[in-house]
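Reproducibility note. Readers wishing to regenerate the assembly model reported in the main text can use the exact inputs given here. Chain order matters: entities are listed in the order in which they were concatenated for prediction.
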Amino acid sequence: MRYISTRGTAPVLSFEDTMLTGLARDGGLYVPETIPTLTTDQIAAMSGQSYEEIAFTVMRPFIGDTFTDDEFRELIAKAYATFGHDARAPLVQLAPNHFLLELFHGPTLAFKDFAMQLIGQMFQKALGRKGARVTIVGATSGDTGSAAIEAFRGLDNVDVFILYPHGRVSEVQRRQMTTPVESNVHALAVDGDFDDCQARLKDMFNDFEFRDGVKLAGVNSINWGRVLAQVVYYFSSAVSLGAPARDVSFTVPTGNFGDIFAGYIAKRMGLPIKDLVVATNQNDILDRCLKGQGYHKGSVHPSISPSMDIQVSSNFERALFDAYGRDGNAVAQLMAELGQGGFDVSQGAMQVLQDTYKSGRASEAETSATITSALKRTGELLCPHSAIGVKVADELREQATPMITLATAHPAKFPDAVEAATGLRPALPARMADLFDRPERLTRVANDLSALKAHILEALET
Ligand SMILES: *Cc1c(COP(=O)(O)O)cnc(C)c1O
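Running the prediction on these inputs yields the following structure tokens for the assembly.
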């Protein structure tokens, strides 16, 4: 299996190098040259299997000879052993034919753990046998950073630096990043918003001297390994509702477009998915774009669903690449226009996007109201991100097809918003009950490339 860049000019890489690299050297994102498919029989055989067995079947065709079958099985087993639920990704029912896929039973209580725990295992294995060391730098709106730190803390071959927007993450998110004591963990509070953090990260990748000097590796959702790990739960949940014998639909609370893109990959692999619904908060550039209004950046408006507070949605580039018939030049052109503020999507590409994705948005008031009504009608406490999914799913779902809405975080990760909507303050699971007692360690850094580079170089030397 070979991987190519969405901008067409970076070297073609193996799975291992794609995973260890992150962003392509032409500024693009890596995608598989072809999407492997599973037969109906292979999908049907997943019925009743463990999450780990399904994960092996779904991901194996993508990894080439990076790991042997036995090695890969062992990495998967270790990755998900840290989860607090035997099903890993359990489904609960909300209403007739509407289901909630709980993706928050990992160690940092958000779906990011599904990919990050596995990436941690894969990095350790691949780097260990090469005797190589890398510097992981990630940008986060809260959940990626905590999941990455949890996955890489204390590992021998890795230093991990996480850029998060100062004052714009929840206290639980911040503490998950600032309380680990391991010396290879570095939490950097940047004076800016998430898009600034993400832009500085891209700057570092495009600074080849720095990039090669520190052996920079990326674990943001632009990393193909992240997307791949997320394809698995589309299969496990759909099969438990009767796929491949019947269609299912999914609604996905979306920010950087990684999670919903994993659903698209599942569909391309042969999973009978009818609708893939993108749900955004008030930062609704994706919803506007999918409704034909072009892709034009505004400014970020902080919301009660901070993990979706974003204007530049990195993985959307992968969707555009396919919508433009895999024309890397066309994508490079669009991304150059985006640097100037935005672009319009061609009619042909728009048709492809609209055939593939539906979309909706939820305002702040609608998000709160959905948290309140879900508790009353189902007994479920939803986090604000998951509530956006439920609201949009209820608007767009058809009674004939089961709808699975992805619950992307545990309500205790966003207790203020949940308490404001319901009067109930969700408790942290017992295994992290002392989070608020642990000392914090972080560095404030200006939203400035040279300041960030200087800090990272200095920290690596000590
Ligand atoms: C990251 C995140 C999202 C958005 O996922 P993308 O893959 O970036 O679209 C939604 N909800 C929560 C809780 C998250 O942490």
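We highlight two features of this model. The radius of gyration is 20 Å. The chain has a mean pLDDT of 96.
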